[in-house]
């Protein structure tokens, strides 16, 4: 009887430990029913998938993204006449690797281990944001972390630019997590 009880306690501890990361993400959603539902649907379709990018491409990926600075934001845009946030990341990675990577931010967010603390991000990590505009997905924007608290992305109002991830007026509250896909 005591052995069964110990096994149950041990199993519960393992389960709670595994859920801890997810609890951090749920906390960011502030019990918003719509956002929690979107997150649960996202999670149910798989996360933390492996992808094999070589770390040697980090600088080239970031350089490609920098080549778009000043390009206007255009939903669905994929070139220097107009580009959206997910296309900026997709093109920056695709031009520098033969590995297939998704085009949509929510699908990108399925790859790599979530990094919920922005202080633990490293240059080349992909950063994901939620609730930046109304859509049926939890992940609504994406960028590339370039170090020193900054990331490059395509802003609806300013086009491709560099922003502070801890900007108290916007991005800090919208940061969901990052992933390290370039090892």
Protein architecture, described:
- This protein has a single domain, classed as endopeptidase fold (from Nostoc punctiforme), CATH 3.90.1720.10.
- With 183 residues, the chain is of the alpha+beta class.
- The protein is globular and about 40 Å long.
- Strand 1 and strand 2 (82-83) form a beta hairpin.
- It has helices at residues 2-28, 33-44, 58-66, 85-94, 105-108, 171-174, and strands at residues 78-79, 82-83, 114-115, 126-130, 139-147, 150-155, 159-164, 175-179.
SSE layout and pairings?
Elements: H1 2-28, H2 33-44, H3 58-66, E1 78-79, E2 82-83, H4 85-94, H5 105-108, E3 114-115, E4 126-130, E5 139-147, E6 150-155, E7 159-164, H6 171-174, E8 175-179
Antiparallel strand pairs: 1-2, 3-8, 4-5, 4-8, 5-6, 6-7
Entry keywords:
alpha+beta, endopeptidase fold (from Nostoc punctiforme), 6-stranded antiparallel beta sheet, two-stranded antiparallel ribbon
What's the rounded overall pLDDT mean? 88
**Can you tell me the CATH superfamily?**
endopeptidase domain like (from Nostoc punctiforme)
CATH level-3 fold name = endopeptidase fold (from Nostoc punctiforme)
N-to-C SSE string, H for helix and E for strand: HHHEEHHEEEEEHE
Gyration radius from CA atoms, angstroms: 18 Å
Total domain units: 1
Report the top-level CATH class. Answer: Alpha Beta
Main pleated-sheet profile = 6 strands, antiparallel
- pLDDT < 50 stretches: 8-20
Strand content: 15-25%
Can you give me a brief rundown of this structure?
The chain is of the alpha+beta class. 36% of the residues lie in helices and 20% in strands.
């Amino acid at each position: 009887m005591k052995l069964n009880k110990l096994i149950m306690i041990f199993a519960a501890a393992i389960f709670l430990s595994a859920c801890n990361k997810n609890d951090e993400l749920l906390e960011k959603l502030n019990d918003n029913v719509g956002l929690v539902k979107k997150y649960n649907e996202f999670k149910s379709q798989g996360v933390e998938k492996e992808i094999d990018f070589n770390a040697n491409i980090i600088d080239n990926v970031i350089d490609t993204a920098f080549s778009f600075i000043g390009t206007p934001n255009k939903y669905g845009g994929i070139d220097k006449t107009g580009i959206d946030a997910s296309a900026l990341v997709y093109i920056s990675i695709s031009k520098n690797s033969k590995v297939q990577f998704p085009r949509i931010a929510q699908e990108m967010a399925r790859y790599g281990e979530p990094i919920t603390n922005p202080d633990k991000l490293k240059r080349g990590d992909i950063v994901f944001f939620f609730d930046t505009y109304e859509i049926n997905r939890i992940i609504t924007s994406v960028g590339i972390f370039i170090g020193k608290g900054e990331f490059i992305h395509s802003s609806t109002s300013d086009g491709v630019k560099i922003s502070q991830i801890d900007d108290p007026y916007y991005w800090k509250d919208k940061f969901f997590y990052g992933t390290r896909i370039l090892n």
